[in-house]
Amino acid sequence: MRLEDMTVALRPRQPWEAVDLGCAMVRRDFGRLMALWACTVFPLWAIICVLLRDAPVWIPLVVWWLKPLYDRVPLFFLSRAAFGVRPGFVETWKAWPRLWLTNFLPALLWRRFSFIRSFALPAQMLEGLRGAAVKRRIKTLAMDGGGSGFSLSYAFSKIELLCWLGLMWGTYGLLPESATPDWQGMIQSFDYENTIPDAFLWWGAVCHMIIVTLIEPFYVGAGFALYLNCRTRIEGWDVELAFRRMASRLTAAAALLLISFTFLSMPVQAAPGDKAAQTIEEVLEHPDFEIHKVKTKEWVPEFEAEEEDEKKKPHLEIIGLIGEILFWGLLIGLVTWLVVYLVKNRHVFISRGVGKKAVAAPKVIMGMNITRESLPDDIVAAARAAWAAGDAKEALSLLYRGSLSWLVTRRRVPISDSDTEEDCLIHVIAAGEKTEAAYFKHLTGAWVQVAYAVLPVSNTEMNLLCDQWPFETSKMTKE
After folding, report:
1. Which of 196, 222, 239 is the last residue of a domain?
2. 3 state SS of 197
3. Dist CA 8 CA 84 (whole Å)
4. Which of 6, 47, 171, 284 is deepest in the core (most CB within 10 A)?
5. Boundaries of domain holding 400
6. 32-83: pLDDT as tens digits
7. Is the same domain home to 155 and 202?
8. Residues 210 and 323 placed together within one structural domain of the fold
9. Pair 76, 93: CB distance under 8 Å
10. How would DSSP label each residue in 133-159?
11. pTM of the prediction?
12. Residue 479 pLDDT level (bands cut at 50, 70, 90)
């Protein structure tokens, strides 16, 4: 690539003026960039959605983490379009695996949290450097444009977050009632897993992908423009380009002088002198021999002002060191907190299946006998009979005692004889069996309503509790 082929005007710009230039470059080829994005990024997102179909809450995090891979194809296109060469679909498709695999692990591990990611990416990808040479190159460029790269990343992260929340807020009213969370129940019970439907999580993940698709190419273009502006400032690209143009014009002038000297030194034969002079004047008047003059102004500060500016210049190395210490301190603190949290809540992640060794189970809870001997063989049938006889409390008591008997003897839920209904519900939810926890929560609400509030439950609700009984009565054998 030659500087003479640049399709943008090379001159030192203010940082946000360079950012605007990068966004204009993306707008110019937005259609082609979206086509390349769809062919390279969308297949990866489809694989992520298939792999995480049972846990859609993690999809936005994985999509966000893999951003350094998405940025490489747009940068590949913009870097060549800046020099007047727009790569075609086949050329980009062939370069796609190499672009993603180059520096794959550094980009997703220790460089993932770089605050100048889009500004440093051109140096990592376009200059062909490896290892320590890349680090030195980025450090050199960051001395001039690192602050602008940090501000760019901060601004675009806020824009992306606000657009994501705005899109979700604007389309929330279009969701069906079954896909909306029970916000009041979630706040009261802190049971986020059971109160947020999977449809709501999928909708949030799709909104996030839409916003990343629309904003990330502009982030890449703005970082690339800052990179070009930084190299123009510290390497004098604009001055070099001006000298190259001047050299080409001087070469043309030298050729003209040589031709003129040749004509003048030739002996005049048949053609008259005035005709030769007229021919030379016609050649000199051609536009190709026009000499252009370029005037450049450079401000040279005084020696005292230069020393004062050096004193006022911030120590970027110290600021970078402080930022790195704060980052690693925050990361170590986060890992420590996560380890402590997992140790304290390890019972949540331990399966509550049938253990090899029987544990001592309480026989009486809240004054109710939950031993298998005190319960009928067919608990659901006995509950239906009591309900038909008009004894709602006895019917719900049979279901509630039978549930507790199954949970403490078969499921090994750590319920003690001093626990209340709320304590029992918390233990059952922590056991991790979603179907049994959901049923027991429904049954506990009905039992508390009849036993304490003395409020009747409907016939439909009682039939539902009997029909949805999740415990296998045949396995509740007498010991």
Report:
1. 239
2. coil
3. 9
4. 6
5. 364-475
6. 889 889 988 999 999 999 999 888 889 999 999 999 888 888 888 888 888 7
7. yes
8. no
9. no
10. HHHHHHHHHHHHHHHHHHHHHHHHHHH
11. 0.49
12. very low
Confidence of residue 477 (pLDDT cuts 50, 70, 90): very low
Phi, psi dihedrals of residue 381, rounded to the nearest 5°: -65, -40
Tell me: do 158 and 128 sit in the same domain: yes
Find the length of the chain. 479
Mean of per-residue pLDDT scores for the chain: 77
Please report where in the chains the tokens 């360079």 appear, as a residue.
18
Last residue of one domain, picked from the residues 239, 256, 286: 239
Lowest pLDDT segment from 46-50, 145-149, 408-412: 145-149
Q: Which residue has the higher pLDDT, 46 or 319?
A: 46
What's CA 407's distance to the chain center, in Å? Answer: 42
Q: Environment class of residue 39 by beta-carbon count within 10 Å: exposed (0-12), middle (13-18) or buried (19+)? A: middle
- Pair 192, 63 in one domain: yes
Q: What is the largest CA-CA distance in the chain?
A: 138
Nearest to 368 by CA among 393, 386, 385, 390: 393
Distances (CA, A) of 403 to 264, 367, 397, 468: 116, 15, 10, 12
pLDDT at 243: 47
Q: Tell me if residue 271 falls in helix, strand or coil.
A: coil
Question: In the chain, how many domains are there?
Answer: 3
- To the nearest 5 percent, what fractions of the chain are helix, strand and coil? 70, 0, 30
Q: Cα separation of 276 and 265, whole Å?
A: 12
168-200 tens-digit pLDDT: 888 888 888 777 776 666 666 665 666 678 888
Q: Is there a single domain that holds both residue 139 and residue 87? A: yes
User: What is the per-residue pLDDT for 370?
Assistant: 84
